[in-house]
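Subject line: Sequence and fold of a protein, written as structure tokens
Enclosed: The protein record, placed directly beneath this head.
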Amino acid sequence: MSAAIVLGLLGLAGLSQSAQLMQKFAWRAIDYAFPSEAQRMQAMQDGFYIPENNLPVGIEIWKNKLFISVPRWTDKGVPSTLNYIPLDVAYSTSPKLNPYPDWATNEQGNCNGITTTYRIRVDECDRLWVLDSGTVGIGNTTQQVCPYALHAFDLKTDRHILRYQFKDEDVNANTFIANIAVDVGATCSDVHVYASDELGYGLLVYSLEQNDSWRFEHGFFHPDPLRGDFNIGGLNFQWEAEGIFGMALTPRGPMDRLLFFHPLASNREFFVPTSVLKAKPNKDSYRQFQALGERTSHSTSEVMTDDGIMFFNMIDENAVGCWNSQTPYSSENQEVVAKDDIGLIFPSDVRVRYGHLWVISDRMPNHLIDKLDFVNDVNFRIFFAPVEELIRGTICDARPSYDHNGYGHPLGPNGISHLSPAATYPLQPPSRKPIYSYPISNRPYHRG
């Protein structure tokens, strides 16, 4: 997609206070594109749609679609968890969300569909990957109404092409998965999906070719007991149990890709070669995980560009930061590229598509711990900006001047060789044959 087409889809937007991110959308409350106004009113009367129960947390972009996830943190009032906004039609600055691919797939408790999803990812083969937590509620109110399952959709046809139910041994009693990363190899069948188990302290791996999954456990997945105190949006609270959450893959190239990751209740970054994850756990796996330096903030989301620039949200600072992966990972080599103490309160997710950084902010702690004003306040915002403009003149735009073979190792003295630019692999188009783990239709779901 050309830059001109992208800018055309983006349309006019207002500048945020950061003067670096442009505000694309803003909502006081989330609404949905019901078939008619009468059906919308009926949905509100029945409790099927309760505006105050809808909080968007994740975004993804594919061509003319902006995907937005809305988890079901209550047992009623969220009509659809996986949604999109068309970017190529006229709309208001607060557009209504369209269920993707349809209403039926988003029916609560439909275990062949999606009950609750948090963060969603598009791969190089035009597929949307969605992890359904199968939960309704949050914290002590959580109900596991469906098992954890991974779904894929062919974005060219909007067809549901995969549902894989994770095995009992992949999860535990504390499992809570809110993030995934998708790793495409030499072909569209060579795919591994990594899912971070935030409260069960594990990393799940799914292989499309093997149609199998397995689980890693490591001390690096646990929270830092010194980093459980949070101050966001004028609130002080403790999330001391929050483990592995944010993940980002290095660019595709001739070298082994790395998966960067970090717990939410921690400022430290870690990484592991993806070859370790693909090989399943063994006696040597544990020592292949490596620790890096620290950030100045807690973070839930990170993403790396094809040039090796990592963007990450800084939820304590109402900001987004960057790091050039050709330099050691440390706070000295990181810089804030956008900050807004009103518009960026809890920048929940960050994505890079078509040369642009996208950010969604949702004031999540205020929603969960305090109370949002859905009548007078703007609560949810989506921003974007060209990557080149964001990093121009920052430390992330600098080129390394040290010897890669010396102490100035790009990942520090304990790292591996420097990250290579992305290489172009011959990707085969996705097969039109469904790749279900089992047929989605005409098969009832049975628990136990």
About this structure: Helices lie at 3-10, 37-46, 274-278, 364-369, 387-391. The first helix runs from residue 3 to 10.
